Amino acid sequence: MWEELSSNREYVYLLKFLTKSSEGAYSMASEKKINASRSLNKLIGKGIIYPEGRGYFFYDPVFEYWIKKNIIG
């Protein structure tokens, strides 16, 4: 799954950010100059994340853990 997603830098920034915080994706995206709305909607459409309240969460906690351990370090 990561191989498919990692080819898009916007997805990488958002997924790495969401492993640390469920809120604030739009402010982070504006700092990195990425289109948060489009990327979040695509990740939702792919079944990777879901919105709840003011945040975004991973459907698969194992994938979230894998990103934390293997990508972020």
What does it look like?
The protein contains 5 helices and 2 strands. By secondary structure, it is mainly alpha-helical. It is globular, with a radius of gyration of 11 Å.
- Say what the CATH topology is: Arc Repressor Mutant, subunit A
DSSP helical segment count: 5
CATH architecture, by name, is Orthogonal Bundle
Give the number of domains. Answer: 1
Radius of gyration equals 11 Å
N→C terminal distance: 18 Å
The H/E string reads: HHHHEEH
Biggest beta sheet attributes: 2 strands, antiparallel
Q: Average pLDDT, to the nearest integer?
A: 94
Number of strands: 2
CATH class: Mainly Alpha
Helix percentage = 55-70%
Question: Numbering strands along the chain, what is their spatial order in the largest sheet?
Answer: 1-2
**Outline:** globular
Percent of sequence in beta strands: 5-15%
Low-confidence stretches: none
Structural class: mainly alpha
Keywords:
two-stranded antiparallel ribbon, single chain, 11% strand, Arc Repressor Mutant, subunit A, 5 helices, mainly alpha, 63% helix, 73 residues
